[in-house]
């Protein structure tokens, strides 16, 4: 292969930044499937994700973050994962890409609430600090 992980993530982020979003992303925040986005004071958006974050549906989190970044880049995006009961490697990758997408637009991304199972996965992978969890 010869491609380093950092280069691959950078290329994916560049593709995401250059992609055009459908007009539906310009609409106001609303519940869509297993995600909800709400604007709060101080340019912070909270996105609540429910269910499982696995290879079949982990893209929903990235789409939700992308919608927020497309509409108006807030100072911070807080992910509420308190209702996410399962997180696999594809879900972890999606979270890391969400963080990269946000940072590339000058926005911080953190996880503010987490289900115990997801907390355990993030602890095992050493990602608690990366997302502002202890």
UniProtKB/TrEMBL annotation:
Q: Which PANTHER family match?
A: ANTI-SIGMA FACTOR ANTAGONIST TM_1081-RELATED, ANTI-SIGMA FACTOR ANTAGONIST TM_1081-RELATED-RELATED
> What family name appears in the similarity comment?
Belongs to the anti-sigma-factor antagonist family.
Span of domain STAS? 34-134
Return the InterPro entries for the record.
Answer: Anti-sigma_ant, MlaB-like_STAS, STAS_dom, STAS_dom_sf
Which SUPFAM superfamilies does UniProt cross-reference here? SpoIIaa-like
Q: Which residues cross the membrane?
A: none
From the Swiss-Prot or TrEMBL record, give the protein name.
Anti-sigma factor antagonist
């Amino acid at each position: 292969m010869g491609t380093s992980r950092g280069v691959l993530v950078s290329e994916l982020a560049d593709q995401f930044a250059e992609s055009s979003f459908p007009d539906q992303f310009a609409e106001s925040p609303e519940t869509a499937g297993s995600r909800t986005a709400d604007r709060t004071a101080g340019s912070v958006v909270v996105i609540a994700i429910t269910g499982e974050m696995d290879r079949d549906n982990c893209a929903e989190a990235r789409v939700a973050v992308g919608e927020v970044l497309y509409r108006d880049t807030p100072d911070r995006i807080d992910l509420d994962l308190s209702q996410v009961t399962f997180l696999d490697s594809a879900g972890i990758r999606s979270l890391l890409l969400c963080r990269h997408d946000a940072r590339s637009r000058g926005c911080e991304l953190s996880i503010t609430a987490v289900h115990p199972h997801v907390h355990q996965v993030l602890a095992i992978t050493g990602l608690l600090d990366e997302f502002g969890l202890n």
